Model the fold of this input.
Amino acid sequence: MSFRRLITLLTFLAILTMAVRVAVDTDTWWHLKTGEWITDHGAILRTDPFSSTRLGEEWVYPGWLSQVILFQVYRFAGFAGLNMLTALLVLLAFGVLWPRLDAPPLFRGFVLVLAAAASGVYWSARPQIFSFALAGCFLAILDGFQDRDRRWLFVLPVLMVLWANMHGGFAIGFLLLLAYLGGTLVDLFSAFLAGQSLQDAYSSVAQDLRWLLIVLALSLVAVCLNPHGPVMLLYPFKTVSIGVLQQYIQEWQSPDFHRGEVLPFLVMILALFTAFTATTRKVRSSEFLLAAGFLLMGLLAGRNIALFALAGAIPLARHGYGALLPIIERLPESEDLPARLTRPLNAILLALLMLATFIKIRVPLQAQTTRDAIADALPVEAVNYLKDHPDLGVLLNSYNWGGYVIWRLHPDYLSFVDGRTDLFGDDILDSYLRAWRADEGWEQVLDSNDIDVVLLEESAPLSEVLVTAGWEQVYADSIAVILVRPSS
Done:
C-alpha cells in the first residue's frame, strides 16, 4: 500500500472514530415523530399537530425529507442506525473536500482531522447534519470551479432542490455562492485599481461572473421546488429573527472558549490566519471572504463553528503548506525505507488502527449505550409516569424536553414548547420563559393556557413556587418533577 493511500485511510478512520457517537439529542425526537407522521399519513405536515400552544396553526418547515429518512433509519436500524447515518454524512462532507486540499497527504490529513475536531460539536441525528454534508459538496464544487473545473457547477441547483427539502440551512448554499461571487467582484476591482481598464478587468472575470450569477438564479428557483413553494425563500430570515434564540439557546450563542470542545475551533482560527500571513502562495479573494465570513458567523453562534471548519479546511491546507514550503525546501532529503519494509509496516499500522476504530465505534453502535445516555439526559421515568396517567390535563413541559414529550406522549399529551422555535416565535417562547422562571405574571401564563400538569426540572424556579402554591407533587426523581394543579 502506498504512503498516500495509507494516510488517506488513516485520516478517514480517525474521522469515523470521532463521528460514530451517540447522535441523538433533544431535538432528534420531534424530527423522528414528524417523519413517522409523514410516513403514516403519506402527506406533508402543513399544520401543527404536536403542541397545545400552536395546535392546528400553519407550520412551514423545509426538513420533511430528512425527517422521513431519519425515521426510516430508526425504524429499521434503531439508535445504531441513527448514529451510523450521522457518521456517514460527516464522512461525506470531508470526503468530497479531500481532493480539493492542495497539500501533501500528511498535511491534508492533519487539516481534515483538525476541522473534524472543530466541527464535532455540530454532529447530531438532526436535519442539520444533511446541511453539513451538502455544504461540503457545495464547497468542493465551487473550489473546483475556481480552478477551472466547471463540469459540476450546474449540479448546484440540483443539490439546492434537495437541500431546500432537507433543512433550512439551504441558506448556507447561497452564502457560499455569494462568497465566490464576491471574490470574483473583488478580483475585478483589484485588476481595475492595479491599472487595467475597466473593460479589460471585466473581461478577465466576465465568464466566471456570468456562470455564478446563472447558478445563483437557478438555485433561487430551485428552493421554490418544495411542498410549500416560494414562501420557503423567506424561511431562513424568519428563523434568525427570533430573539429568544440568540438570548437563551446555547447553540445560537457565542462560543465559550473556556470549554474544552471549543479549543480545536480556536486552534483552527490561529492556524488559518497564521497561514494567510505566512503563505508563499497567493491568497484568493474568495478564500479570505469565506474564512472571514464564516469565522464571524462562528463567533456569533456556536452552531456555525462547523461551517467555519468546512470553509476553512481548503485554504488552511493550501496556505498552511504554502507557509511551510520554505522550511521544507531547506530540510535535507531523507532516504526512503525499502518497499519490503514499508509495506508490512504500513499494513500492520493500518490493521492496528482499524482494530482500535472497531473497538471504539462498537460501543455507540450498541442500543444500550444510547439508552443510557438518554436516561442520563432526559426525564425517561417521569414520562413513563405520564404515559401511565394520560388524563392529568394540559401539560407545561421544559423546553429541552418538548421533543421527547412529542415522541413518547403524543397524542395523549401535547408539548407546550419544543425545539421548533420557528413555529412558536418570540411571544410563546417569552411566555414559557416567564413561567419557567416564575417571573411576574407566571400565574396568567398557566391559567390562560389551562395548564393542569407541569413537567420540569426540580431546579426550575416554577417548581418551587408551585409547591408553595399548593400544587401536588405526584412524581420526582433526580432529573424531573411532575406537579398537578390542586382540585378546586
Notes: The longest strand covers residues 451-457. Strands lie at 394-397, 451-457, 472-476, 480-484.
